[in-house]
Structure formats: structure tokens, C-alpha cells
Amino acid sequence: MAHSAQLGFQDASSPLMEELLHFHDHALMIVFLISVLVLYIITCMITTKLSDKFILDSQEIEIVWTVLPAITLILIALPSLRILYLMDEINNPHLTIKALGHQWYWSYEYTDYEDLGFDSYMIPTQDLSFGQSRLLEVDHRMVVPVESPIRVLVSAEDVLHSWAVPTLGVKMDAVPGRLNQTAFITARPGVFYGQCSEICGANHSFMPIVVEAVPLNYFETWTTSMLEEA
Questions:
Q1: Fewer beta carbons within 10 angstroms: which end of the chain, N or C?
Q2: Where's the Cytochrome oxidase subunit II copper A binding domain (predicted)?
Q3: How many whole angstroms separate alpha carbon 181 and alpha carbon 1?
Q4: CA torsion 222→99→17→144, rounded to 10°?
């Protein structure tokens, strides 16, 4: 979960988010080297009064400053395309969950079960227990088994929403009349927080998302208890 004065990303909790963090560091290093080179050239041009006719008009230099940016773009584009395809790849999910956005709460349907579905509302500040996070805790969490491919079908009932959990590297728009899908694998047990990331009205800030990853035996116990309550 994010904390105050945090400058970087949240810790990765899925293999996809780890890939995104590595690509971010890779691209940032390239940008840093380019910035240093440009700053050095600007400094040299300002501080020296000497000039060389071979620098002012040289075919070799023009070739170099054309080829180097092309190579740099390739070094950025290839890892980016790889991650882009990984984000769209959904192979044999162990569980499918439908997340439906409303004004202003989420409802979840476990489509592999006949009658397993519930609404997820934010817990008001005055009802929070000790240790719970304000504006982030919900009355019913989306529980998933750890280390299992999970497919999430995302849609909305009224206006545009966006189902986003940063630590899992997941963000998918919820569009009325359209069914989008995304997938993730939780690398470890834990509770992962997110929020609606599309301005959807007056209470846009009050429809959090909580994903709880548990071992498979605990997940089976949870589904049994939820089905009994239904």
C-alpha cells in the first residue's frame, strides 16, 4: 500500500508488475544518460569560444546523431512491446471474476460458482476498526487464491469507471455495455488496495477496491462460507 511522501511505485505483488518496474528503471536510465549528454553539450557550447569547421559541417557526425537516437528508440520499444503482449495474454485462468462498477460501489460475481456474488461498499470513517485504512477499506473483499491466474471481466452499469490495483499492475476501464478483461497472478498472500481511476461522479473517491490473496485451502473455506450465507 502507498504511504505518505512516497516518491516511487508500490512494491510489486505480481510478476507483471515486476516486469513493469524493471522496464521503468530501464527507460529511466536511458533518459538520464540522454539528459547528461545534452547538458554536457550545452555546457561546452556556452563555456568555450572555440569552434571547429569539421564539427559545424561533417557528414560523419550527422550519421552518428541520426543512428544513435534510432538505436535508443529500439532499446526502449522492444521491452515495451514484450510487456504489452504479456499484459494481453490470458492462458487457462483458474478463476474468473466479473467486476461491475456502480455509482459508487463495486459488485463481484464469481462466475465459476452458481450463486457467489456480493456488493463491495466502502466502510465509513466512523465504522472503521483499529488499523483499518480510511477511504480504502471495504465491507466485502475480493478474495482470490494466491499464485493462480485470475481473469477479471470488467464492466459498468451506469457511467465510466476504472478497476485499478497498482501493486498488481492492473488497470482496466469499466464501460457500460462493454465487457473488458484483464488478468493477474498474486505472487504472495496479502491485502492489496486500489481505487476507481476514472472520474465517475460526486463520490468517485469513495469506491475503493480491496483484493485479498490467500492460500487455496483458505479460499475454499471462504467460498463455502459465502455460499452458505447466500
A1: C
A2: 92-225
A3: 24
A4: 10
